[in-house]
Design a protein that fits this description.
With 442 residues, the chain is mainly α. 77% of the residues lie in helices and 0% in strands. 55% of the residues are buried.
């Protein structure tokens, strides 16, 4: 055990209470959601949902809303800078289950960073594709991750300010895009319900699309990882979560309608990594494409900054709980600063190795498993400590279970390699963690 450095005080004491406002926490939550949902995932959801894209995002929001209820109940009782890691600890103690669930969430969030970074590169590539090779996408993605690391090495006030400014810009920009797109649709607005725009969508594909759309909303968990730093956390964590979900639902539906009204499903699918830029072309030409690319850059930059901010805190909390093996990069560095380096490094590796579709699929599987563990732990072990409505948490558990089974089954039929790879990662986590906890307790 002396191989691993464990210092409780350097984590807890450096998190400043009341350092993040309600607006700032909403900015962090929407930052992660919009960056992933609108720019990274909407084309992939369209590939599975076809002309039912809008319905998929609405149902995804409903599932995410039920899930959010459990997190709100936890946060009201246990606001913490470790968020999900702390919730799992309260539900399962310092156990393999806690470590496993928290690591799955950590990996899911790191995957989200890689997904958003790739999206950043894909949109920038639309402006220069005639002049540079496609490797430009990966290079830009890597540079964004490095930039996010640098920003997250600064203070909370700077991170909040960056998130707040970019959130305002991107929300206004997306609203402008949506309004212009809706006006451009004109009399063709009925085309979103026209069978000519539909693709052949089976029940399995549609259910899988809902699972993928849930990933577009999971950024609300970012807020829980800043719980003890948010002003009046017992009230503002829950407010931040609900406000963020509502804002994103409105934006997703508006943009989905614009995409379906101006592009065919085939066009959306073919341009799934840069669908909004593709939709802007027939509306405003090159000016529209440039505007959308700039918007995507702002959204993805703020999204990855917010995601790194959250996951570094949760990982540091796992170290504080002595639930994961850890060694500081430098002895004089805070634990959270060292986790930033590890997280950024893993994100870089994923960005280099996987395409956007497979990155997203890994994120869905890991997130839904962890989400189910949150609901189950609340029901099984915390009924006397946390106030909640059993019917709501049970519904969240059932909906997550249906989505997970549907998504895994769909991937087994269409991309079995990703299910195999996910299973291998899960097995490795369990084996390594079980051995680590055994050694720790000796």
């Amino acid at each position: 055990m002396n191989k691993y450095i464990y210092q409780r005080s350097d984590n807890i004491e450096t998190y400043k209470k009341n350092s993040i406002s309600l607006f700032g926490s909403v900015a962090l939550g929407t930052g992660v959601m919009i960056g992933a949902g609108l720019f990274a995932l909407i084309g992939q959801v369209a590939q599975l949902a076809g002309s039912y894209l809008v319905i998929s995002f609405i149902l995804g929001a409903i599932v995410a809303g039920f899930s959010a209820y459990s997190y709100i109940c936890f946060s009201n009782q246990f606001p913490s800078a470790g968020g999900i890691a702390m919730y799992l600890k309260k539900a399962y103690g310092k156990s393999l289950s806690t470590a496993f669930g928290a690591i799955l969430m950590t990996v899911s969030m790191i995957i989200n960073e890689s997904l958003v970074a790739r999206t950043f590169g894909s949109y920038l590539y639309r402006l220069v594709d005639a002049y540079v090779p496609e490797v430009f996408i990966v290079i830009m993605a890597v540079l964004l991750i490095v930039f996010a690391y640098i920003i997250n090495s600064s203070t909370n006030s700077k991170i909040e300010k960056t998130a707040s400014i970019t959130s305002i810009i991107k929300i206004l920009g997306i609203l402008i895009f949506a309004v212009v797109g809706l006006l451009a649709m004109g009399q063709n607005s009925s085309s979103i319900f026209n069978s000519n725009t539909s693709s052949s969508v089976g029940l399995g594909g549609f259910l899988a699309s809902i699972s993928l759309s849930i990933l577009a909303y999971k950024g609300f968990t970012t807020i829980t990882n800043s719980g003890s730093e948010i002003k009046d956390p017992h009230k503002n964590v829950s407010r931040s979560i609900m406000i963020s979900l509502v804002i994103c639902l409105i934006l997703y539906v508006l943009v989905a309608v614009v995409l379906l009204g101006n592009l065919s499903i085939e066009e959306i699918v073919n341009a799934r990594d840069y669908a909004l830029a593709k939709a802007a072309d027939p509306i405003l030409g090159q000016v529209g494409v440039t505007f959308t690319v700039v918007l995507a850059v702002i959204a993805t930059v703020s999204g990855i900054i917010a995601s790194v901010f959250a996951v570094s805190r949760m990982t540091a909390m796992l170290v504080d709980m002595e639930l994961i093996p850890f060694q500081k990069i430098r002895k004089n560095k805070r634990t959270q600063k060292s986790t930033l380096i590890y997280i950024s490094g893993i994100s870089l590796i994923l960005t280099l190795l996987f395409d956007m579709s497979r990155i997203a699929s890994l994120g869905v599987i890991f997130y839904l498993i962890m989400d189910i563990m949150i609901h189950y732990g609340l029901i099984k072990n915390l009924k006397d400590q946390v106030k909640y409505k059993l019917s709501v948490v049970l519904m969240a558990l059932i909906l997550d279970g249906i989505c997970l089974v549907a998504f895994v089954f769909y991937k087994l039929l269409n991309d079995p390699l990703i299910v195999i790879f996910s299973s291998v990662i899960i097995a490795v986590i369990l084996i390594v963690e079980k051995r680590y906890l055994q050694v720790r307790n000796e």
